[in-house]
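Researcher: Structure prediction, please.
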Amino acid sequence: MKVHSKGDAGNLAEINIIPLVDVMLVLLIIFMITAPMMKQGVDVDLPETNAAAVSSAPEDMVLTIDIEGRLFMGNNDKTPYSLTTIEDKLKSVFENKEKKELYLQADKNVRYGYVAQVMAACQRAGVERVGMVTVPEGKEINK
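Model: Predicted structure follows.
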C-alpha cells in the first residue's frame, strides 16, 4: 500500500512483519522446549483392563494412591495424606459440591485391603460414587 502526497516522492507506509515472525518463532521454540518440563503428577503404575473409557471433566476430583500407600488429591504431589487426614479433606472438598464423585487412581501393586480402606474413608466423607482409573491393555501410560 503506497501513500502519495503532493510533495512526497514515494514514501512507503507498509507494515514490516519480519520482526513479528521472528518473535513468534522464538516463542514457539521456547514453548516446545518448556512444555514437557511442566508435566506434573504422581508416578503410579496403573492396572490394565479392557473396559471402555469413561468421559471425564476437568473439575473431576482424582485421588491417587502411590506404591508406598501415600494418598494425593488431584495433581498435587507435594502434600501426601493418610487414611485419617484424607477423610477430613474429602469432607471439606465435597460438602458444598452437588456432584459427589471421585476417581480413584491406585498403583497396581498396592494391597487390595488398603484400597478398600481408602474407599470406605471416601464413603464416610460423603462421596457417593467412586470410579477406578485404569490403563487399557497393551497401552503405556505417559509418565
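Model: The beta strands are 48-49, 61-65, 71-73, 101-106, 129-132, 135-136.
Researcher: Thanks, that helps.
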